[in-house]
Design brief:
alpha+beta; 5-stranded antiparallel beta sheet
């Protein structure tokens, strides 16, 4: 499933990112924030309007706002709380 489909509050691990669909600078920013393959995160918030933007992602002790297009480029798998 992609990150935008992840239920809110579910811990997950990023298994793949399709960097080709993102602008190079956006990809560089996401990597600098630790959002890359293997990262563990939790979807904390999803926008309520038509575009469902932004999404808030908790990664480590940070909460980062990303656009839905970024979340669509990321494949995630849920992980148990113990493994997170």
């Amino acid at each position: 499933m992609t990150l935008d489909q992840l239920p809110i509050g579910t811990p997950a691990r990023i298994t793949a990112v399709d960097w080709t669909v993102l602008v190079a600078e956006e990809g560089q920013r996401l990597r600098a924030l630790g959002i890359d393959e293997g990262a563990r995160l939790t979807l904390a918030y999803r926008g309520v309007f038509a575009g469902r933007d932004p999404l808030a992602v908790e990664i480590g002790r940070m909460t980062v706002a990303i656009r839905r297009v970024h979340a669509l480029a990321m494949t995630v798998e849920p992980v148990s709380e113990a493994a997170a």
